[in-house]
Amino acid sequence: MVTRTLLSTGAAIVIGLGVLAIGLTLSGYDAGAALAAMGTGAFGSTDAMLSAVLPRAIPLILIGLGIGLAFRGGALNIGAEGQFYAGAITATWVGLQLGARVGALGEPWARIVVLPLVLLAAVGAGIVWAGIPVLLKLRFGVLEVISTLLLNFVAEALVSLMVQGPLQESKHIYPQSDLLPAAARLPQWPGTRLHLGLALALLLALGLWVFGRRTLAGFALRATGVGPTAAAVAGRIDTRRVFALALLGSGALAGLAGGAEISGTTYALFQNLSPGYGFTGIAVALLAKLNPLAIIGTGLMFAALEAGASAMQRDAGVPAIAVYVVEATIIIVVLLADARRRHLAMRAAGGEG
Amino acid sequence: MPSALSLRNISRQFGTVTALRAVTFELAVGEVHALLGENGAGKSTLMKVAFGLVRPDSGSIAVDGIPVQLRSPVEARRAGIGMVHQHFTSISALTVWENVALTAGWSVRRPGVVAERVHALAQHAGLALDPRSIVRDLTAGLKQRLEVLKAIAADARILLLDEPSSVLSPAEAEQFLGQITAFKALGISTVLITHKLSEALGVADTVTVLRHGSVVHHGPIRETNARTLARHLLGEVSIDRPQLPPPVPGNIVVRASQLSVDRLGVGGTGLRRATFSARAGEVIGIAAIEGNGQRELLRAIAGLVRVAGGSLEVTAPVALVPEDRTSEALIGDFTLAENLVLSQGRSAPWIHGPWIDWPDVHARTRELIERFEVRASGSAMLARELSGGNQQRLVIAAALERRPAVLVAENPTRGLDFKASADVHERLRATAAAGVAVIVYLADLDELLAVADRVVVLTAGIAHEMTPGASRTAIGRLMLAGPEE
Predict the structure, then answer these.
(1) Are A219 and B44 inside 8 Å of each other by CB?
(2) Per residue in B221-262, pLDDT tens?
(3) Between A64 and B156, the higher pLDDT residue
(4) CA–CA dist B167, B398 (Å, integer)
(5) CB nearest to A353's CB, from B14, B329, B341
(6) pLDDT category, A201, cuts 50, 70, 90?
(7) Which chain A residues contact residue B334 at CB under 8 A?
(8) Which has the closest alpha carbon to A59: A96, A85, A94?
(9) B191 phi/psi in degrees, rounded to 5
(10) Is B354–A235 a contact, with Cβ atoms under 8 angstroms apart?
């Protein structure tokens, strides 16, 4: 089963790259050079992997885990992008405020105090941002697909407001925040851009995997997602509560992703901080069939594609957005393969007999 | 004369299960042929073969003596075969004539003409239906009629009716079966798939009985009788069950006084000031026509809905067997073991703090399915792969595993065949004999009277406790009585 999934995903990547090559050739680009640049950008050197791929994978994995959690519980969270920004804004604010005040403590004490607070604040902001759709759903029956999606735009506007207002850098020239003080930064692997957020993401993936497989709460989550009526009647599970917790947990992880991005990679808040992590995260989770361990793999895959895409733009002059062709093709191919497999299974099972 | 439909030596294997074993089935022109069998005997698969939905591993098919390949329902329809499924396949927002025209492929450019044509066809087939009514407003009986009309409009000369009475009320079913015999005059040959002996004996000319994928009996209906058919149907199982000793009622474990419950969903009346009690060790039968408050009463006892007025005292724990097996009692895409975890909650032996001990769950599931004779390949099998009867066994097993003081069962034999229903009855009786108060609603009054010690009739949400031994007529009359206000 696992080998089969790996094989079909591998085939999907090859097909996706093939489609990209055809498209590039037809538009007059040198497809060979473009793909070579992509490959080098993603896997060409240790530096590419440590500084380009892995740092990108961190938010994708964290968000993917969150989406997986929500979808497992039947909550369609399309608002990870907004929750990510809520986390990023809050992490910036807390980091700047606390960093200035606690800086006097000196290393390493300042960091031990400030860094966890920065990340926790980001988690809290993600929960609050996801809490709005939860309330709307439980109170008024507003579909979370709609409310989470729309709150993305609100969060993006909020970022604009912040970087031109309260959080704008001290000289008031650029639409971005000041750089976070050292105490609010996640430690980096020396000489690379890889930060400790990766360890956090991997631990959380493992934790969520164990949670889903071995705990009663994880079981209740799955039951609510797969059979909400039976979960409520036969299982006497409070499915509204499970829904709420799944969506809030999802927001927490997306918020953490935003906090980790600020605290580990950019050190500052600015517009378009996320190149669509919140949406790519949905593909990351779905391709992994919501399995937390598989999300590590799909997160790395999409990170490699996007890192390769930047290199392709830099070195071969092909717009980076061309990589969306590859991503979209992969998703379509995998979905088709799944549909085909289900069709065959149904054929084999036939009727009641 | 060649047969209208001839299936010869049809075999079909699903995985490790042999659904059909060299089955030969001949449908003579103009006859009504009953295809009898328990759930899982292979009758549905055989008809799916005849309708191009399932391809046989081996065997041949001929229509009017001409060999055919049926690779899809489209090809089957072209060959003159029409199938009426258990579920309705009409578009509820459209009118009767629109549905007929859609299926038959008639042009709808002149609605008046088409409606008239549908009307004429309905008259001709003896299926009175107003072509202009909207399908969603039709009763189940009329919807069924429409399904048949659609098949006839599509020029079907061979009709496959898959358990047509299962969705109808008894009166509607009787009327519908009467219409089947009238099809003979139109030159239509009919296969009536059923597991009810009375239906086969009532309308069929010929009967074929399937058991475990093989034909065990075939012949004219007049040369057989209910007893013989039952033996063919069930195999060498004794139909007479051992009599259990009369119950010794214990303490009162459910006491409802002036109990009111708001209605669940649309339609129905809810429960209004119901007063009754149940003792340990007895089976209380709730007799009611759909929507008279039985659902509200049972769910209130099970603690699933809020009490709106009056008082309700119930000795815990209470276990519920919900009416809808596939959506409320089980999660079809979960394994049997997972469904057991679902049903047992936090107090189960495999729960240690927040953890589930899965090896223990699987061991206990295997033990449970063996003890309750659930036919399953193992604890990791998906619940939806079980037959209806085995699903119900699993649901009841899981309910009893909670060691309840009160067992509430909502129409637990719905959709089950004769043998599986008898199993459920027996299990309910045995549960009561073990000192549990069993409160059961069964849609079939005869079944209810067979299994219950005492009957409570619900009419428009008002409860009437009947004395033990109250007559069927008295109960029936009370069920039909309208609201008293």
Answers:
(1) no
(2) 888 888 888 788 776 554 444 445 555 678 899 999 999 998
(3) A64
(4) 28
(5) B14
(6) very high
(7) 223, 226-227
(8) A85
(9) -105, 125
(10) no
Return mean pLDDT, chain B: 86
Q: Which residue has 């949905």 as its token pair?
A: A282
Tell if the CB–CB gap between A215 and B356 is shorter than 8 Å: yes
The contacts of residue B426 (CB under 8 Å, 6+ apart) are: B241
**How sure is the predictor about A260, in pLDDT bands with cuts at 50, 70 and 90?**
very high
Longest dimension (CA), chain A: 77
Handedness of CA B65, B71, B72, B74 (dihedral sign): negative
The shortest CB-CB distance from A230 to any of B15, B342, B351 is to B342
| Minimum distance, in Å, between the CA of residue B133 and any CA atom of chain A | 33
Hey, of A213, A219, A237, which one would you mutate to test binding to chain B, going by the most B CBs within 10 A of its CB?
A219
Q: What is the 3-state secondary structure (H, E, C) of B267-280?
A: CCCCEEEEEEEEEC
Residues of A in contact with B15 (CB under 8 A): 348-349
- Asked if B355 lies within 8 A of A219 by C-beta distance, the reply is no
* One-letter amino acid for residue B85 of the chain: H
pLDDT, tens digit, for every residue of A107-154? 778 888 899 999 999 999 999 999 999 999 999 999 999 999 999 999
pLDDT over threshold 90, residue B349: yes
Measured from the Cβ of residue B177, the count of other Cβ atoms closer than 10 Å reads: 22
Q: Look up tokens 């059979």; give the residue.
A: A227
**Residue at A338: amino acid letter:** D
Angle between helices B336-344 and B388-400 (to 10 degrees): 40
Across the interface, whether the CB atoms of B45 and A352 are under 8 A apart is answered yes
Least confident of B14-18, B99-103, B290-294, B336-340: B14-18
d(CA B39, CA B424): 15
> pLDDT tens for residues B22-61?
999 999 998 999 998 876 788 888 999 999 988 999 999 9
Residues whose CB falls within 8 Å of the CB of residue A25, separated by 6 or more in sequence, listed in order: A31
pLDDT at A101: 82
CB contact under 8 Å between B54 and A349, yes or no, is: no
Choose among B42, B338, B355: nearest Cβ to A215.
B355
Q: Give percent of chain A with pLDDT exceeding 70.
A: 97
The residue of chain A nearest to residue B321, with distances taken between CA atoms, is A234
Question: Considering Cα of A278, then A280, then A285, then A289, what sign does the dihedral take?
Answer: positive
Provide the 3-class DSSP secondary structure of residue B78.
helix
Spacing of C-alpha B443 from chain mean position: 11
Q: Check pLDDT > 80 for residue A103.
A: no
Q: How many residues does chain A have?
A: 353
The answer to whether A353 contacts B42, with C-beta atoms less than 8 Å apart, is yes
User: Which are the contacts of A268, defined by CB distance < 8 A and separation ≥ 6?
Assistant: A92, A169, A176, A177, A178, A179, A180, A262
Residue B331 pLDDT exceeds 50: yes
CA B132 to CA B114: how far, in whole Å?
11
Do residues B439 and B286 lie in contact, with contact meaning Cβ atoms separated by under 8 Å?
yes
Residues in B whose CB is inside 8 Å of some CB of A read 12, 14-15, 17, 19-20, 39-40, 42, 44-45, 48, 53-54, 213, 304, 320, 322, 324, 327-334, 338-339, 341-343, 345-346, 351, 354-356, 358, 385, 387, 395, 398
